[in-house]
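Re: [ENG-882] Designed sequences occasionally contain unexpected residues at chain ends

Forwarding the minimal case from QA. Structure tokens:
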């Protein structure tokens, strides 16, 4: 996002619909299966908006602007809540203490922008954990689930029965896993208009 000269103060129009930011890459996908619902989610560095095929160009423009603005507002709110790498490390240690008896001790936990196909990754050798920045737009319990998943890898490198038993000690593991599966389904089926993103649906 670029910042220019200050804009003179004006009285806001309460009926105006905000335009997407200049750096937002928006892909609109129309579906004959949709009747009224409009969905928006992030996918591979862009915003995908799913709309009914019957929408007029004017309706498309209005809904896209509204959904992009809502998604951006929600992301900013969650970014403030989740914080940066320091807060993420503290969050991971608290989750380890609460659900893994403090046995998983990460050396570092940080957000990364280069993980587009994985939600998180762990290197047991140096006890480092990385979380995809895509998670910043998702509910906190989903972020916590991914953190617990990666923390367990510090104890169990593979995905055997003991691994999943440890992950299941996080009470909302099943719900979070279902949420992420829904996001992935919406991402792959969005072009056909199937499914719905569970994060932002109007």
């Amino acid at each position: 996002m670029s910042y220019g000269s200050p804009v003179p103060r004006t009285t806001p129009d309460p009926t105006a619909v905000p335009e997407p930011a200049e750096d937002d890459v928006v892909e609109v996908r129309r579906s004959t299966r949709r009747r009224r619902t409009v969905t928006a989610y992030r996918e591979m560095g862009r915003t995908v908006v799913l709309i009914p095929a019957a929408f007029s160009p004017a309706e498309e423009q209005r809904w896209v602007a509204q959904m992009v603005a809502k998604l951006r507002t929600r992301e900013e709110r969650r970014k403030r809540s989740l914080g940066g790498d320091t807060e993420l490390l503290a969050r991971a240690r608290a989750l380890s203490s609460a659900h893994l008896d403090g046995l998983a001790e990460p050396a570092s936990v940080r957000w990364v922008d280069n993980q587009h196909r994985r939600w998180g990754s762990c290197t047991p050798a140096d006890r480092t954990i990385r979380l995809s920045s895509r998670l910043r737009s998702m509910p906190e319990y989903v972020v916590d689930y991914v953190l617990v998943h990666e923390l367990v890898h510090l104890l169990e490198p593979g995905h055997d029965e003991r691994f999943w038993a440890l992950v299941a000690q996080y009470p909302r593991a099943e719900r979070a896993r279902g949420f992420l599966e829904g996001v992935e389904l919406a991402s792959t089926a969005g072009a056909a208009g199937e499914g719905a993103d569970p994060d932002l649906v109007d």
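QA comment: On inspection the terminal residues look reasonable. Residues 1-22, 191-202 have pLDDT under 50 and may be disordered. Proposing we downgrade this to a documentation issue.
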